[in-house]
Design brief:
Layout: E1 2-7, H1 17-27, H2 34-42, E2 46-48, E3 51-52, E4 64-69, E5 86-89, E6 93-98, H3 115-123, E7 147-153, H4 156-167, E8 172-180, E9 187-191, E10 194-196, E11 204-206, E12 215-223, E13 227-234, H5 241-248, E14 273-281, E15 288-292, H6 297-308
Helix pairs in contact: 1-2
Length: 310
């Protein structure tokens, strides 16, 4: 446990307590998020003049803010020598092409064979560990049966920099997918909030009352008699966003057992969805970097078959 105390100066007068801590620790390059400090405040690890306050407490000049930073929890997750398809790598980050069936980070029932196990082996001690979480280096994720490009950060500074871009919706994320049915419009946008399904807790759903804003732009690339090959661009990144949005307009993803009946002439492991392109500002160079993951072979084979019977 590390205790630090700060005296509030004129420039921070009237600032919220949680934002003040976020700003102070950003200046010292420790890379801790505002939500991290909100949790510390809620858990009683932050005082103002020796008194516990809420996150929205407005600071006064000469207030003494004391904060206890808990030691990062050591992860029981072990490195594993699992081959990685690396699309890009430098001293700050790497972009990997995640295969179908691989879980991104450890969770109940998945403590080995995950992308985290693989990158821990590949990167050794060079991985970010923001907030002491058990998913080192992972700044965003894609579903187990979705393939494609994923950013892994090697240090906390890169993690914070990329996370801020994701939060601001400035990362260029383009997906490819095949959906059931023939989509009539050449392009369009689904703007519908997504939240937990009110009955089936494993599912997400368009939820006007309790959902968070979600926007998916789509474009038709090729039409077939019973399916449509499409490109999706995410403006937000909610859980199962593309899958939920396309199902909501009557065109669930081919093979998606959760949001469709899953019936198809192909033997599929989950949805036919591929995170093809990631574009973002590099944390060190400040230059725009775009990385593209080629379509997996199973996806290409389906497209060949559909074109043959067009």
């Amino acid at each position: 446990m590390n205790m630090e105390t700060f005296e509030v100066e004129t420039e921070y007068e009237g600032e919220r307590l949680d934002r003040f801590l976020n700003l102070i620790f950003q200046e010292s390059a420790k890379g801790l998020s505002r939500s991290f400090f909100q949790k510390l405040i809620k858990d009683g690890h932050v005082t103002v003049n020796g008194v516990l306050q809420k996150a929205n407490y407005r600071l006064k000049i000469e207030d003494l803010v004391s904060v206890e930073i808990p030691d990062a929890v050591s992860t029981p997750i072990l490195p594993e020598d699992i081959p990685l398809d690396i699309l890009y790598e430098d001293e700050d980050l790497l972009v990997v092409n995640k295969p179908k069936g691989m879980v991104v980070h450890p969770s109940a029932g998945h403590y080995s064979g995950t992308l985290v196990n693989a990158v821990m082996f590949h990167c050794k001690d060079s991985l970010s560990g923001i907030n002491g979480e058990i998913r080192p280096g992972i700044v965003h994720r894609i579903d187990m049966d979705t393939t494609g490009s994923l950013i892994v950060c090697k240090n906390d500074e890169s993690h914070v920099f990329i996370a801020e871009q994701i939060k601001a919706h400035t990362v260029n994320r383009r997906y490819r997918g095949i959906v059931y049915g023939t989509v009539k419009e050449d392009e369009g946008t689904v703007c519908a909030p997504i939240g937990r399904h009110p009955v089936e807790r494993k599912k997400m759903a368009v939820n006007e009352k309790n959902g968070k804003p979600a926007i998916t732009h789509y474009k038709v690339l090729e039409r077939f008699s019973r399916y449509t090959y499409m490109e999706f661009q995410l403006e937000t990144g909610r859980t199962h966003q593309i899958r939920v949005h396309m199902a909501s307009i009557g065109h669930p993803l081919l093979g998606d057992c959760l949001y469709s009946n899953g019936k198809s002439p192909y033997k599929l492991q989950g949805q036919t969805l591929h995170a093809m392109t990631l574009g973002f500002i590099h944390p060190r160079t400040g230059q725009y970097l775009e990385v593209t993951a080629p379509l997996p072979e199973y996806f290409e084979k389906i497209l060949r078959d559909l074109r043959n019977f067009k």
